[in-house]
Amino acid sequence: MDQNTSAFRSKAKALLSLHSWSGIVLGMLLYAVIFTGTVAVVADEIGEWSNSNYPQRLMLTSDVNETVKRLSAQTPKEYLDEISAYENDRQQLVYFFHTHKQNPSGDMDEYGVQYALNSQGEIVTEKTGFGSDIYAQDDTYALSRFLVSIHTELHIPSPWGLILTGILGLAMLIASVSGFMMHRHLFIDMFSIRKQRDGQSLKRDSHTVAGTWSIPFAILLAFTGSFFSFSTAFGIPAMGIVAFGGDQEALMYAMVGEQQNKSEARMASANLNLMLQDAVQRQSAAPTFLSISHIGTESASVLAFFMPNEGKVGYEQLVYDGTNGDFVEYKPIVGSVPSLGSSILSLIYPIHFGTFAGLWSKIIWISLGVAACYVTISGLQLYAHRNQKNESSWQWYSRLCVWGFFGLPLCSLASTVGFFVSGSLGTNQSVWTQLSFVISAALISVLSLSIKNIHLLKKVLLAGNGLFCLILPMLRYTTSGTGWLQALQHNMMAMMFIEMTLLFCSVWCFFALYKSMQFDQQNINQTNTSFSTQETAK
Amino acid sequence: MNHLIMTLPFIMYSLAIVFLLAHTDPRRRQLSNKTDNTTNRKFVLSVAGRKLLAWSLILPFIPLAAMANYAGILMYAGAVTVIGWAVSELPTSVV
Hints:
Protein name (chain A): PepSY-associated TM helix
Order of helices and strands of chain B: HHHHH
Largest interface: A-B, 33 and 29 residues
Oligomer: heterodimer
Shape of chain B: elongated
Keywords (chain A): Membrane, Transmembrane, Transmembrane helix
Low-confidence stretches of chain A: none
Helix content of chain B: over 70%
Mean pLDDT of chain B: 87
Number of domains of chain B: 1
Low-confidence stretches of chain B: none
Largest sheet of chain A: 8 strands, antiparallel
Strand order of the largest sheet of chain A: 4-3-2-1-5-6-7-8
Order of helices and strands of chain A: HHHHEEEEHHHHHHEEEEHHHHHHH
Helix content of chain A: 55-70%
Mean pLDDT of chain A: 89
Distance between the termini of chain A: 57 Å
Pfam family, one (chain A): PepSY_TM
Structural class of chain B: mainly alpha
InterPro entries (chain A): PepSY-ass_TM
Number of strands of chain B: 0
Organism (chain A): Aliiglaciecola lipolytica E3
Number of strands of chain A: 8
């Protein structure tokens, strides 16, 4: 019996060490990935909000067939291999006529001409280059792209950023599983949060309760996140080397499920508008994007991509024969025939980002992200608090926690301010969004080092967050002129959602600030009372 | 949109059940009595009753699966965990 108890204790101790160290070493970076992941859930909405965009469903209202014919006539023939079409966040329909070739980094990429057309069908911009470069310099997505890139790669060059986020996902997985295994009274303590003498919740209990409730999704999100990072950094290149002898083009054709050598014999293509109408009828929704391959040849095909719809979780891809306009198949995400692997793969992205049921699922996924952030913050604070008591040299860790927890949201908000201000000044938004983040990070670091009192530093950063959350809707209105009435008239749900969330966060920040100041005042009063009691006793 | 509306009643149901579980949680009551003697809870559930209530949180998966509302299943599972955490964080004077 004694042996069993001691074995259990040593196992629990080992698990606690594993749990603590996986959290302490990578906790701050993990917080950065989880926080930006929570923001990335609404990346599309942020894109629409930052451009004050209301989707016009241009793919359904404009004559795609006529536009493609017109643009094909003025585009070099080598770029007619494939045409991608989608509506961007500035009420423009984007057509990218491209072929595939290796970019300077050695990766397979799309290369060609990109046209952005307004609702009247006039060309607004025309760019030639690699798809990755054109997307990286597109100011439309400057803000959402920047925030998502922190989540996926921490802005570290490829593949190192992906490897690091993959390791962070594994650390989250280890912390979740070890936390689950070491807690003996998991279900008994599910609703119990003890209070400290000062009336505040005990940090350990808050950490345990939030962790217990969010364990299933923490494991799910950590696994899917790690899968994304490692499959892009290792998995696909490794598969290319092993199965295709390093032939990336052959690998891509096999993954996409296309024949590598297609007939290039000329043949008239069917009307794209009719195929589009049929796809919309089948899915009862507008496609997210279109991919038109080998137009004007015997091998012409059209693929319409749809977000999950009507209770489904995975994406849908409808393929049409481009020569006669007949519906061919619901195409799997990977390969040419339906498989378990393809089905699982089609579920991973929607499950990780919560994009399977519009705003409703995103609200739930944001809440899960907030819970995960809370678990990370409370865990690190718990460690900082314990060591702060024992050793004065650990003060820096508490300072680091305040710097990270309050600083990262503030830097993200500052980058948004940079996006709007640079947009109104007509300068490069992609550059200024990043620069604003870096400048604010430097300022917050200086502030964190110069303000000696950690509580005061926390209050300053909290006030900064609240102020920026309040300013941003006004700044957006000033730069775009689109108000709430107009937004409601045009059913701009994404924009309203982001504005409401910002205002809610602002209220929360100021409320937390007020409570903190009230708490400080109570402490001062208590100290004064006990001091005067001591004086009277003397 | 229909499948989202179909999920909402189940989420409300889970909120009620989790609220009830928290309200009748013996450990939570024990801790609340330690700090606040004025708390008077007359509503008590047996251990078996609480277990039944907890297991009943799984019931909505059956109709959701029958309706092939897989998005609803995921949403419901996510909502239960978020509601559980939020209710636990509420002060004992509320729950």
